[in-house]
Design a protein that fits this description.
- The chain contains six helices and 37 strands.
- It is mainly beta.
- It has a 22-stranded antiparallel barrel. The protein has a three-stranded antiparallel β-sheet with strand order 2-1-5, with no helix packed on it.
């Protein structure tokens, strides 16, 4: 992470040079609109073209020798409605299977800016190894990632780019946004840097670059991380034709220390520096390196079934058919290395007199290939093709808005060393092909009902017999123009185990056995009042043949059913400038050995926000607190890059509190925070979230985020 300041300056300079030629887009001429209305000219139902300029004076003869100025077309895409087009800047994500996008605003306010760890942004947050750039797993079972992609990278889901979270932007002016946050002494520094450049060539065509560099030099010994993520994207969202293309790269390096030798090393003793806390792999030089290269392109072309007129601002209000294709290439690799070294637990057990007796242990029980050191190399590649058709019978926002159908083929390549391959020096490759068909239907009834249903089926090939069915219904009512939303979701899935769950050959773990398909049924009901920052929901799930990593870190499958239930509530109170934000989650699992979850998890944020100088400087001061009850939280295995269900120690009953001061001065956001302010003040002293991995001790953070507009 060193040298990020120089990198930031270089990126800023490059962004400014790219942004300068474009200039500002033309704005709406109000006088031209008024004159048109006075003359009685027909205008579009969607308003006057904001990029069309009229002559400055009325009644003057036109100079026919001059070239006619080209009219610049506005954003006419059926993806975006009038409320979205009215935003000065907005972003969206593309759906891989369907001709749809998910739209959201660009956040430049103080909202959630204080949350610098991305895995803490959703509801009650994640259980985490502790530092920026390290692994995490959502406390909420129903938010845990479910993917057939490279499973070894799933613990980094909060950091990595994939096809459906690469951002695209539409900006009226070129935009550059930079952020930098650092904390701790130089030797143990944690750094968080990102830069975003977005520019529209025209109202319908734009490109953007997003780069993030996050990690730490390590508060604890052997905990250095480097997490670099890059996305370069291009989009064109025209009246009929749209294309989204992007290249993204994820590069992760993490030193592995295996966690503390015992809870006592954190709770019962005081070390002068966190780097003095004894770890299990402190002498083993264990390390994981992940590399991901990917690109994708999704295109669609709309064919209107009705004659288009000048009054039709876009195809969203017409009967139409869209045909499209989506292609993706993604390759992942992981290399794990270590050397054999035992660790000593000074408080392994007590003798008959009650005195502690030390003992030596080996972190891994088995060394199948090399008894002195490890170098496990794994590789996975997926090439995906999807062809889809979307029918728009009447109106895109009608009772039956869109009907989708598609077929797809995925080509998988898996590669790892086998025992014989160590002699030849070549990887063993396995190729699999999966075929599937999918479809969906959805629509709206004015602003009161929003519904959709979808299905995906794999008839043959790899994952043959897999099935996914889902449905969603949202009912909206209004009291004094305040929306009240009642939503229901239902899903049924039957999915094959991943390749790596059935086949693995490494120095410490080895298995090759078929597993049964997992079955899961989920049902969810939520009620929300957005204007009053209230949300409550109930979720129920039943999992059959659950696949998990057992207490010995080996793959296991539960033969019966496990029932999961949860109740989630969020309410943000506001009294003048005082904000009291509360998120609480209750969860129950019928088998904690298979799916361990804490009974209670909570995130509370209390702060005061006010203007220091009206419309110039706004300040936010407060506290963030996280807490969950004691349960047998998962541990983390470095060689497998997976969370496993340890059954030895309980984790929880520790409040983790941060104090912060955030400020927004014009286009600049300023970040000040002291993390883990309650260390040594209150709590049981066991500040763990993942078994064996302590959260960061107290440290001060400072940062800045600045947006530049041309």
């Amino acid at each position: 992470m060193s040298g990020l300041s120089n990198i930031a300056i270089r990126f800023l300079a490059a962004g400014v040079l790219l942004a300068l030629p474009a200039g500002a887009f033309a704005q709406l001429d109000a006088r031209a609109v008024l004159r048109a209305q006075q003359r009685g000219d027909e205008t579009s139902l969607y308003g006057t073209n904001p990029y069309e300029n009229d002559s400055e004076t009325e009644g003057e003869p036109q100079d026919t020798t001059q070239k006619v100025r080209r009219i610049r077309k506005p954003l006419e895409s059926y993806f975006f409605d009038d409320s979205i087009r009215a935003l000065p800047n907005f972003k969206w994500h593309i759906r891989q299977d369907y001709n749809r996008v998910t739209v959201g605003p660009l956040d430049t306010t103080l909202t959630d800016y204080r949350i610098d760890y991305p895995f803490y942004l959703q509801d009650v947050g994640d259980m985490a190894q502790g530092a920026l750039g390290q692994t995490s797993l959502p406390l909420n079972y129903f938010r845990r990632p479910q993917s057939f992609d490279f499973t070894f990278a799933q613990p980094y889901y909060a950091y990595t780019y994939n096809m459906e979270n690469v951002p695209f932007y539409n900006t009226k002016r070129p935009l550059i946004r930079m952020s930098y946050i650092e904390s701790g002494q130089k030797r143990y520094r944690e750094e968080n840097f990102d830069i975003m450049l977005a520019q529209n060539i025209s109202p319908t065509t734009g490109f953007n670059v997003d780069y993030k560099a996050r990690g730490t030099r390590g508060q604890y010994i052997w905990s250095r991380t480097k997490n670099h993520n890059l996305a370069v994207a291009f989009n064109h969202t025209g009246k009929r034709y749209s294309v989204h293309a992007a290249y993204y790269n994820n590069h992760i390096e993490q030193q592995e220390n295996g966690g503390v030798v015992g809870i006592w090393a954190i709770a019962d003793t005081t070390f002068q520096m966190p780097s003095g806390v004894p770890m299990k792999l402190a002498d083993a030089e264990a390390r994981n390196i992940y590399r991901n290269n990917a690109f994708f392109v999704t295109q669609s072309y709309g064919i209107p079934l009705q004659r288009m007129t000048d009054r039709d601002f876009s195809m969203a209000g017409l009967s139409a058919v869209y045909i499209g294709h989506s292609f993706q290439y993604s390759s992942w690799s992981k290399v794990y290395t270590d050397v054999r070294a035992d660790y000593t637990d000074d408080r392994d057990h007590r003798d008959e007199n009650g005195n502690f007796v030390p003992a030596d242990h080996s972190y891994y029980d088995d060394w199948f290939i090399n008894p002195a050191q490890s170098r496990d190399s794994l590789y996975e590649r997926v090439i995906s093709n999807r062809f889809f058709v979307q029918a728009q019978p009447w109106d895109r926002n009608g009772a039956v808005g869109t009907i989708d159908a598609g077929v797809g083929i995925d080509l998988h390549t898996y590669s790892q060393f086998g025992m014989d391959d160590y002699l030849s020096g070549r990887h063993r490759k396995t190729n699999r092909t999966s075929y599937f068909a999918y479809g969906s239907v959805g629509g709206k009834i004015k602003r009161y009902v929003d519904w959709d249903a979808n299905i995906r089926f794999y008839p043959s090939g790899y994952r043959g017999g897999d099935l996914e069915i889902g449905a969603h219904l949202a009912l909206t009512g209004y009291i004094r123009r305040h929306p009240l939303i009642l939503e229901g979701r239902f899903s049924v899935s039957r999915r094959s185990p991943s390749y790596w769950q059935e086949n693995l050959f490494s120095n410490h773990y080895m298995w090759s056995a078929p597993l049964n398909k997992e079955n899961e049924t989920r049902f969810e009901v939520t009620f929300s009042v957005p204007d009053f920052a209230f949300e409550a929901g109930v979720r129920q799930g039943v999992v059959g043949n659950s696949i998990y990593y057992a207490a010995d870190s080996r793959i296991a499958q539960h033969g019966g059913n496990v029932s999961l239930s949860s109740v989630y509530a969020r309410k943000d109170f506001r009294l003048g400038g005082l904000h009291l934000d509360n998120r609480v989650l209750l969860q129950w699992s019928t088998d904690q050995e298979v799916v361990p979850v804490p009974l209670l998890s909570a995130y509370l944020s209390y702060y005061y926000e006010f203007w220091v100088v009206r419309n110039v400087l706004r300040l936010q001061i407060g506290l963030d607190g996280r807490y969950h009850t004691v349960y047998k939280a998962p541990g983390y295995n470095p060689a497998l890059s997976a969370f496993y269900n340890q059954r030895e120690v309980g984790v929880g009953n520790y409040p983790y509190v941060d104090v912060f001061a955030m400020a927004k001065w014009k286009r600049m956001r300023i970040f000040l925070k002291y993390q883990h302010v309650n260390k040594g003040l209150f709590g049981n002293g066991e500040y763990f979230s993942v078994a064996g991995y302590p959260l960061n001790p107290g440290m001060f953070k400072i940062g800045i985020s600045w947006g530049f507009y041309d």
